[in-house]
From TrEMBL:
<feature type="transmembrane region" description="Helical">
    <location>
        <begin position="314"/>
        <end position="333"/>
    </location>
</feature>
<dbReference type="InterPro" id="IPR036259">
    <property type="entry name" value="MFS_trans_sf"/>
</dbReference>
<feature type="transmembrane region" description="Helical">
    <location>
        <begin position="66"/>
        <end position="86"/>
    </location>
</feature>
<dbReference type="GO" id="GO:0022857">
    <property type="term" value="F:transmembrane transporter activity"/>
</dbReference>
<keyword id="KW-1133">Transmembrane helix</keyword>
<feature type="transmembrane region" description="Helical">
    <location>
        <begin position="183"/>
        <end position="203"/>
    </location>
</feature>
<dbReference type="GO" id="GO:0005886">
    <property type="term" value="C:plasma membrane"/>
</dbReference>
<feature type="transmembrane region" description="Helical">
    <location>
        <begin position="32"/>
        <end position="54"/>
    </location>
</feature>
<feature type="transmembrane region" description="Helical">
    <location>
        <begin position="98"/>
        <end position="117"/>
    </location>
</feature>
<feature type="transmembrane region" description="Helical">
    <location>
        <begin position="215"/>
        <end position="234"/>
    </location>
</feature>
<feature type="transmembrane region" description="Helical">
    <location>
        <begin position="123"/>
        <end position="145"/>
    </location>
</feature>
<feature type="transmembrane region" description="Helical">
    <location>
        <begin position="240"/>
        <end position="258"/>
    </location>
</feature>
<feature type="transmembrane region" description="Helical">
    <location>
        <begin position="154"/>
        <end position="177"/>
    </location>
</feature>
<keyword id="KW-0472">Membrane</keyword>
<keyword id="KW-0813">Transport</keyword>
<dbReference type="InterPro" id="IPR011701">
    <property type="entry name" value="MFS"/>
</dbReference>
<feature type="transmembrane region" description="Helical">
    <location>
        <begin position="423"/>
        <end position="449"/>
    </location>
</feature>
Length: 462
């Protein structure tokens, strides 16, 4: 069934397929989804806090220790689309359970690591487990909530992402104040075991595709993302020769992949979905939004330290209002996402985010903590308003049977935006001697671009 909306003429669903769950069934199934989501988001946020201690304990340089974070993110991004495709074949619930199990095993491996190479490889495995969870996360929500209430489920999903991001640094600091760094990974075990038990008992069985797994396409997809990511990282750190060579290899893999998948019925990189203009526009808006957010998140600690002269403890407290704003507004917007189009809500949200960045940009360097905090909260509230409606727009414009591809692409838009934002920060720090406020200005421009594109999707999607 196709429904014409203000965001475009391709909102599709199947009344029987997307009937959803009710009562206790919905509560248990959604609890399983959110617990698995919290596991992957929380661990990513906690690991950042421990990098200095890990580098010191494993006798590694700071630049090498960053691969503890990069290995997770790159493995996660590279595997999202192949795993989303696999989820359509083996079942979204089964793949989510596999992801939780891999995450549990990888957490043990991280905690027992004796050198940086072991820890990096274990973190990469953790990233694959996280990709199993994230690639089908929204697809499961699509089957748990009925079509008319889907926005509530997606907003709840965004709320828990915000909670994980907000709790991560604080929980990491608390653990490290009383224990050594391996405990940031041991803490995952009870949460993973609870998530695995609940997922096994409560997640709904979803329809499966009978199209065989495309191994060649899967390998090309992983190579395309991984090589491009590593190459661009090298370029942004001024390692031009090797960075350019690896980037070119990644681009060649992309060309081979897109040529190979042109005739596939359900391509791993969902070119069939991206050919749908409302879907493409929603993904681009999501990408720009997360470029803006990571330009802020990655650069702001340096801005607070060098421009505003705040200490490490205060920096964490001044960044926390961003996550509080995202989580709070995600809860508030849960009742609006199903009533108002993304072209309205997401546009306003990104405009508020851009305004918050602008207010921070114009602050004098002797500004009070309160002046910084309320502007950060304001920007975070805008981002929380932007996410759920735009995520809903991505999911409802995918036809029945392509929920896995849409869910994977939603996560790719988020991670690709975050990665691009981080790479831009690295590039700006390489080019400019004092890039703190330049990054804030770039974040404002990216948010404004996303808001403008979102506002125009009603006309561009026609």
């Amino acid at each position: 069934m196709t429904v014409t909306t203000e965001d475009g003429p391709q909102e599709e669903y199947d009344a029987k397929r997307h009937a959803g769950l009710y009562g206790a069934q919905r509560l248990k199934a959604m609890s399983a989804v959110l617990l698995a989501l919290l596991l992957s988001v929380l661990d990513y946020a906690i690991a950042n806090v421990a990098l200095p201690l890990i580098a010191q304990d494993l006798h590694a340089s700071s630049s090498r220790a960053i691969w503890v974070v990069n290995a997770y993110q790159l493995a996660n991004l590279s595997c999202l689309l192949p795993l989303a495709s696999l989820g359509s074949r083996v079942g979204f619930a089964r793949l989510s359970q596999l992801g939780i199990f891999l995450f549990l095993i990888a957490s043990v491996a991280c905690a027992l690591s004796q050198n940086l190479l072991e820890l990096t490889l274990a973190r990469a495995l953790q990233g694959v487990g996280g990709a199993c969870i994230m690639s089908v996360n929204i697809a499961l929500v699509r089957f748990i909530y009925p079509h008319k209430e889907l926005g509530r489920g997606i907003a709840l999903n965004g709320l828990f992402v915000g909670i994980g991001v907000a709790l991560g640094p604080s929980l990491g600091s608390l653990i490290l104040s009383v224990a050594s760094w391996p405990w940031i990974f041991w803490i995952n075990l009870p949460l993973a075991l609870a998530a695995l038990a609940l997922a096994h008992a409560a997640l709904p069985q979803t329809p499966r595709s009978d199209i065989p797994t495309d191994m060649v396409g899967s390998l090309l997809t992983v190579a395309s993302f991984a090589l491009t990511g590593v190459g661009l990282d090298g370029l942004m750190h001024a390692d031009f020769l090797s960075g350019a060579a690896v980037t070119v290899a990644g681009v060649l893999c992309w060309a081979m992949l897109l040529h190979y998948q042109r005739e596939r019925l359900e391509p791993i990189v969902p070119v069939d979905l991206l050919a749908r203009r409302p879907f493409l526009l929603a993904c681009l808006v999501g990408f720009l939004g997360f470029v803006a957010s990571n330009l802020y998140i990655v650069a702001m600690p340096f801005t607070l330290a060098t421009a505003f002269h705040r200490g490490p403890g205060m920096i964490g407290l001044l960044i926390a209002p961003w996550a509080v704003g995202v989580a709070t507004m995600s809860f508030v917007v849960s009742r609006l996402a199903d009533r108002f189009p993304a072209s309205v809500l997401s546009s306003i949200g990104l405009l508020i985010t851009a305004s918050g960045f602008c207010l921070l940009w114009f602050l004098p360097t002797d500004a009070s903590n309160w002046a910084i905090a309320w502007r950060t909260l304001f920007a975070g509230c805008g981002f929380g308003l932007f996410q759920p409606p735009n995520n809903r727009a991505i999911m409802v414009t995918a036809p029945p049977g392509r929920e896995g591809g849409a869910s994977g692409m939603l996560s790719v838009a988020r991670l690709a935006g975050q990665t691009t934002g981080a790479l831009l920060v690295a590039g700006l720090f390489t080019i400019f001697a004092h890039p703190a406020f330049i990054c804030l200005g770039a974040a404002m421009v990216a948010a404004l671009a996303g808001s403008t594109l979102s506002l125009g999707r009603k006309y561009l999607a026609a």
